[in-house]
Specification:
By secondary structure, the chain is mostly helical. It is built from 8 helices and no strands.
Length: 123
């Protein structure tokens, strides 16, 4: 069975948020099916970098990650996830705050908690 059938295509850097999330899930399955999940972190890091595809490898190397990060698959995944998560838009959060209405089935406590979460994103 080829790695493409298990992992799908390499990470698409044009749609990195969605593509990376899917790749991360599939990578975990790949390690399990190939009994590599018990391997040393450095080996898993090498497997990860081999499977993400050249455009993603170039992107990772352009981030100037510390050498220690490149030897640990968890650190690589964390660095990629943090760098590529969508940025919060305070203007949109403000819009959400002004237009948020309490739902019929929503308790006052849940409504207030939801408002506080939106306020955090307004900053």
């Amino acid at each position: 069975m080829s790695t493409t059938k298990i992992l799908g295509d390499p990470v698409d850097i044009d749609n990195i948020a969605v593509s990376w999330a899917q790749f991360e899930k599939n990578f975990k399955y790949f390690l399990t099916t190939h009994k590599s999940d018990s391997e040393d972190e450095e080996v898993k890091a090498a497997i990860l970098m081999a499977l993400v595809g050249q455009p993603m490898r170039d992107l990772v190397h352009s981030r100037d990650l510390p050498a220690a990060t490149m030897e640990n698959s968890k650190d690589i995944k964390k660095a990629i996830s943090e760098k590529n998560k969508p940025k919060e838009n305070p203007l949109f959060a403000s819009y959400e705050l002004h237009h948020r209405r309490r739902k019929d089935s929503e308790s006052l406590e849940d409504f207030s908690r939801a408002l506080m979460e939106i306020v955090k994103r307004c900053k």
